[in-house]
């Protein structure tokens, strides 16, 4: 890493319009996962910081001093300012999360779109007219609904998209008129604090955005159990998410959790395109995405050709420093995760799987992109969320078997299906129990305006500005009678 790489001197965490340079538990260092160099010092918050932040948000909600027209202005200006600073944010993302720089630039550009879509929705979301006079009980009454803020929003974001997944929580909350308390991932708080600085400079009234940095077991739990939080939006693991929901049973809890996303490659289909896309979708950001392509089911007539197309592409991925413009795959977020990859691969091979490529760690915690064929059903590389650069390939006898295998999961976020048969595409769309079924695409595809979320252990929400705003508001019925 060169000496002119940016390091970040951050003002602290934002509470009630003021920047606090330290937290209840002092300061914590943020280090680059790739080489351990310091990226920034951030406050280590605690329950008292959370309480101050929530009380500040409650005060903002009561003041009601952030009208919709101003919220639209802030969202539009944030999109423009982010666009101007995309490279700066991309470098922050790459340093703190080890996401390769060229991939980090894509995330920064997507965050621009997320704020732009939230601004558009903020201009237009509305209630509806209720046909009261359709019944005798409603005679001479005019009815309509208002969309009112649900209350204080607690947002807990993960490390893998430290800017755009923060944007997917903050931007809809601003649009909906909900004050927000954000806890970014403790490994990657820098992008979130830079975004908060940007928003603060655009004139948010105090209390409408608060950011408390710190560990999930301390700050996250304090947020989830605070009496004055009305709505929790959480992105992370299924185990943590459902445990949080159990603790916050009287709140509105929306979870976007993990998956072991399947890709079906049927006969006939454009299987070469499927292989090309899978060679990226299974390994981008070292597979650390909840919709990373993980399980591939290929029709037996196509399997040999598919693997001949896939393997050279995977082996050609460039490994190394995330700040290098040529890097495709860098390290995992911790060395423990790197060690876990090797353990899971060894387990699969011991159970009869064939290791086709990869399967080993190289320098700086980088795990070589790995393809495993015929893993046993119970192997963790198949049944659990890998969250690493490992893809499995299984040969299927026919489309029906592929559908059954793809659906045999406790997760259900997104599935991909490559087929030239429209009838099979519609059959997959109707039968696969997933939040999204993407035809002739990998499951790793997401547009920021789409309804995004899953079923089963993949969560209970749909993100995307329009859909998040819907969930962050409540309908209030108003009737008028002369």
TrEMBL record:
Looking up Pfam families in the UniProt record yields:
Aldedh (PF00171)
GO MF annotations, alphabetized: lactaldehyde dehydrogenase (NAD+) activity
| Keyword field contains Oxidoreductase | yes
Q: Which UniProt keywords apply?
A: Oxidoreductase
| Keyword match Oxidoreductase | yes
Organism domain of life: Bacteria
What residue stretches are annotated with the Aldehyde dehydrogenase domain?
A: 28-477
Coiled-coil positions are none
Sequence segments annotated as region (Disordered) = 445-464
User: What is the similarity comment for this entry?
Assistant: Belongs to the aldehyde dehydrogenase family.
Name recorded for this polypeptide: Acyl-CoA reductase-like NAD-dependent aldehyde dehydrogenase
Protein source organism:
Thermomonospora umbrina
């Amino acid at each position: 890493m060169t000496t002119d790489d940016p390091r970040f001197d951050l003002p602290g965490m934002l509470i009630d319009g003021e920047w606090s340079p330290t937290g209840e538990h002092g300061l914590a260092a943020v280090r680059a996962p790739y080489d351990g160099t310091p990226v920034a010092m951030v406050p280590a918050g605690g329950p008292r910081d959370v309480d101050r932040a929530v009380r500040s948000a409650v005060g903002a909600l009561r003041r009601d001093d952030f009208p919709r027209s101003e919220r639209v202005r802030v969202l539009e200006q944030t999109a423009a300012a982010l666009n101007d600073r995309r490279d700066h944010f991309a470098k922050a993302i790459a340093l703190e999360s080890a996401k390769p720089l060229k991939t980090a630039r894509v995330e920064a550009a997507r965050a621009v779109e997320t704020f732009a879509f939230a601004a558009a929705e903020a201009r237009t979301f509305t209630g509806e007219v209720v046909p009261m006079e359709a019944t005798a009980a409603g005679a001479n009454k005019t009815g309509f609904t208002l969309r009112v803020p649900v209350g204080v929003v607690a947002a807990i974001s993960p490390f893998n998209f430290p800017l755009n997944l923060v944007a997917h929580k903050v931007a809809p909350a601003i649009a909906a008129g909900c004050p927000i308390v954000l806890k970014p991932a403790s490994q990657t708080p820098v992008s979130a604090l830079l975004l908060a600085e940007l928003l603060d400079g655009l004139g948010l009234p105090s209390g409408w955005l608060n950011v408390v940095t710190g560990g999930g077991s301390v700050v996250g739990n304090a947020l989830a159990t605070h009496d004055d939080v009305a709505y929790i939006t959480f992105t992370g693991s299924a185990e943590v998410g459902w445990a949080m929901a159990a603790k916050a049973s009287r709140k509105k809890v929306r979870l976007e959790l993990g998956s072991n996303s399947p890709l079906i490659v049927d006969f006939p289909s454009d299987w070469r395109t499927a292989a090309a896309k899978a060679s990226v979708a299974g390994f981008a950001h070292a597979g650390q995405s909840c919709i990373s392509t993980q399980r591939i089911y290929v029709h037996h007539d196509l399997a040999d050709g598919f693997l001949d197309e896939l393997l050279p592409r995977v082996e050609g991925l460039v490994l190394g420093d995330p700040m290098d413009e040529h890097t495709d795959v860098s390290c995992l977020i911790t060395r423990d995760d790197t060690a876990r990859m090797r353990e899971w691969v060894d387990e699969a091979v011991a159970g009869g799987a064939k290791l086709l490529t990869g399967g080993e760690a190289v320098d700086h915690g980088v795990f070589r992109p790995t393809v495993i064929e015929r893993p046993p059903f119970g192997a963790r590389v198949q049944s659990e969320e890998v969250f690493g650069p490992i893809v499995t390939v299984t040969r299927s006898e026919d489309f029906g078997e592929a559908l059954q295998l793809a659906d045999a999961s406790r997760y259900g976020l997104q599935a991909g299906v490559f087929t030239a048969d429209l009838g099979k595409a519609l059959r997959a769309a109707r039968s696969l129990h997933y939040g999204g079924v993407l035809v002739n695409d990998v499951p790793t595809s997401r547009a920021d305006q789409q309804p995004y979320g899953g079923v089963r252990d993949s969560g209970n929400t749909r993100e995307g500005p329009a859909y998040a705003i819907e969930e962050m508001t409540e309908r209030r019925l108003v009737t008028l009678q002369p």
